[in-house]
Amino acid sequence: xxxxxxxxxxxxxxxxxxxxxxxxxxxxxxxxxxxxxxxxxxxxxxxxxxxxxxxxxxxxxxxxxxxxxxxxxxxxxxxxxxxxxxxxxxxxxxxxxxxxxxxxxxxxxxxxxxxxxxxxxxxxxxxxxxxxxxxxxxxxxxxxxxxxxxxxxxxxxxxxxxxxxxxxxxxxxxxxxxxxxxxxxxxxxxxxxxxxxxxxxxxxx
Length: 205
Hints:
The protein is of the alpha/beta class.
């Protein structure tokens, strides 16, 4: 029997901002998204684990890209501006679903890979107040799709994998959940999510 549902934020509750931020920042730095990603891809998990702030990340990025005349603070400001615009509105269908699940006595948790600065912004927007539990990469010192991230969630929920549903728009993350015996659902559309939840006999009405 399902007891807990874990929901990703970006790409589920709010629009996924990663691609828009990457292309917008690349343009700001007068480079390409591909070049930015190829030069800095090894840093992403360190940022999500809280080892680097966005300021640290962009300081390293500017050096690797040999960009001059732009400060790390300028790039962070651009990053936050793009995130704020992209994630301005929560999906009303997902909001209603979370409320209905909690009313039906399911525990509902958020699980997000984020950055220190974005976490502060998301907190001000009230995202984390919607959930019974919040699993935030920078607080945990680990990030999806690490096995330890999923193990920690199960421990804190005091839940067996088969009692848990994990909803994410990342195939890598949902695959990892399934590898651990969790019911991983790849989020594509709200209609499909409803079908998937009903197939697992979750009360969503």
